[in-house]
Amino acid sequence: MRVHVYEKAFLSVGGALLVVFLGVLSYTSLAMGIHLPGHAGQIDPATARSQPPFDQPGVRQTGPNTYEAVVLASAWQFVPSELRVPRGATVTFVATSTDVLHGFEVAGTRVNVMLIPGQITRLTYTFREPGEHLIVCHEYCGAGHHIMSGKVIVE
Amino acid sequence: MSAPVVFDPTGFAFPANQRRALQWAMVIAIVAMFAGVAHGLAQALSYAGIDILQYFPGLRSYYQGLTVHGVAQALILTFAFSNGFLPMVTARALGRPLNTPLLHATFWAMAVGCGLAGYALMTNQASVLYTSYSPLQAHWTYYLGLALVVVSTWLASANMFLTLRAWRREHPGTRIPLLAYIAILSYAMWDLASIGIAVLFLGFLLPWSIGWLPKVDPLFNRVLFWFTGHAIVYAWLLPAYVSWYALIPKQVGGKIISDRLTRAVFVLFLLLSIPTGFHHQYADPGIAERYKAFQAVLTFGVFFPSIATAFSVMASLEIGGRARGGTGLLGWIRKLPWGDPSVVAQLLAMLTFVLGGFTGLINASFTMNQVVHNTAWMPGHFHMTVGSAVLLSIIGVSYWAVPYLTGRRLWAPKLAVAQSWIYTVGLMIFARGLISGGLQGMPRRTFIAQATYTGEGWGLAGALTGIGGSIMTAGMLLFFLIMIMTRLVGKRDGAPKDIPVSETLTPPSPSGWDARLDRIGFWVVMAIVLILLAYGPFFLTYHLNLVSPGFRLY
Asked: What is the topology classification, in CATH, of domain A48-154?
């Protein structure tokens, strides 16, 4: 029957497209090194402020062109709220929350992660262009959610 | 041996008391729809920088209204509708009445659940958004109420299974009628999927909100939520698919193209809907990247039955259009019954769902998800899925089901046709706004009108969202008007006497491999095996981290 020919063609093309998409995604992950956050350790949110590295939030240099940015989120602010890094710096964000869920999105980049009490979030990104990026808390965290923001300044 | 294959219980009529119970399920759905729409307008305008919350005297915050919107639309409307619609079509397809006590119990579990959750929501004791992420804590009545809503869905599926069992006893060796099969499979999938949210609410959040459990693990709770949370979108969608596959062909004068393919599609949804939840948690810490990757592949797999659906539904529409005199490559489209409000709503649902599907595939795309996660893109996406494919299908079904159940003819059918168009035009503008705002970093779930920051391009994005949302609201108000007028002044003659059940072009075969599709128990076991493969490694290696007391920051 004619219908079955079209049906097979449609399903084959659709299925093949899905396989191609998965191939591209594997390439971005395996060859281009774009990673998602994974296991980076657990922490007690009640005492996170006094545990390293969160006892000293801020940016510090860890190698010739590598930096670590330690951020603590709580309702309704990021500490520190402003991060300064040089152009071309590869920055590893290490962050957690002391109370409820928060989001950590550096607008205009792919730095876009959840901060979950009890978990440490770690993600690496290279800032190639100078400029200013807005940091937005993009997970609802209570009545003041819409005032929670910060800045990354690439110098 | 040739077993009888097609079972067509022509002339089946519901007992009056069951008809009433099904009507009341629809009433809850439409009331929930209204509760959600009211605040939807406030949200859309907030994106445009306009704050109309001061005119909502009962509300204490934007987020209280946002929680009502999510709970009412995503949890109450969808499941109240399914609780009525799926058992109704099952009974019709099997030609036997439902179990009356269970039908009443379903209604009361839903009604009491809505009452309990509604109390907590209205008194601003549950402004935690519908995802209920701990450690934001709500009043215990909220968790108990929503648990009862889930229980009501279990009662509705028990009713369908009992009806099927009784039918099978009377018809040994007969293939299950297609319409009953796909309706039952839709809720069988949901029964399995809802285990996550049931454990979350009854095992953690309820005892925690009462004070029996001092602390919870926020990540673990998110995993339980998303165990249910992706499959839940298919639980919303599959009733719409039931209508598109098995009812719409009849309404347009066509036929279901393949019995076998339709059943296979629903089996694939049963198998693949659940082991995909981690793709909502790509951005979460504490879950190994390889677990996320495995579920990403399965998520792409669950896209496949939707591709098959696009083909089948289009093909049956084409059969209908050609039977109505349409010729040429695309001429059949013009011949579809564009004057029938029930059909138009669902044709528009299908069209907008194409965009919803595309954006959904982008969300599921592992690394690309980092660009859009938790931005305004997300509500842009899901208003083109649950906010169109599902909502417009519920509206389309209501245009025949409310007259069918009440015995009153639809009021102002031309207005009803306009209603779907108005809503869809609004939706397209609205979604265009949110999608572009999201790509420029605009966050979702945020009171943008009073945010202390702004970003490039958010002005235009927000304005489009506000304009589109206002048009959508106008479309929805028309729907409520039509429903109320149908109930009050609809003529007592000319209402549909039967549910539009389609014939199939290639009927089911009595033997061979596709008869095995009817072994629902077997497919449920297969689904469980896949779930264990996808979630087992995480659950076995995860170190439960009970660290969070409750916070009430709203």
From this structure: Immunoglobulin-like (2.60.40)
Contact: A103, B374; criterion CB under 8 Å: yes
- What's the pTM value of the predicted model, to 2 decimals? 0.96
B125-145 core/surface letters (b: 16 or more CB in 10 A; e: else): bbbbbbbbbbbbbbbbbbbbb
What value of ipTM does the predicted structure carry?
0.95
Q: Is B398 contained in some domain?
A: yes
Query: Is residue B11 domain-resident?
Result: no
Give the model confidence (pLDDT) of B399-427 as tens digits.
999 999 999 999 999 999 999 999 999 99
CB contact residues (below 8 A), chain A span 81-120, against chain B: 99-101, 103, 105, 107-108, 110-120
Cα(first)–Cα(last) distance of chain A, in Å?
66
Q: Does A27 touch chain B (CB under 8 A)?
A: no
Residue B550 in any domain: the answer is: no
Q: How many domains does chain B have?
A: 1
DSSP A3: H
pLDDT tens string B167-186: 999 998 889 999 999 999 99
DSSP code, position B375: B
Domain that holds residue B360: 16-541
Do B285 and A11 lie within an 8 Å CB cutoff? no
Would you say residue B10 lies in a domain? no
Put simply, the answer to whether A114 touches B284 (Cβ < 8 Å) is yes
Annotated catalytic residue B551:
no
In chain A, positions 32-71, which contact chain B (CB-CB < 8 Å)? 34-40, 42, 44-46
Identity of residue B447 = F
Q: Give φ, ψ of B387 to 5 degrees.
A: -80, 0
Q: What is the DSSP letter of B98?
A: -
Q: Is B317 within 8 Å of chain A by CB?
A: no
Look up B263 and say whether it is catalytic: no
Between CA A12 and CA A21 the distance in angstroms is: 14
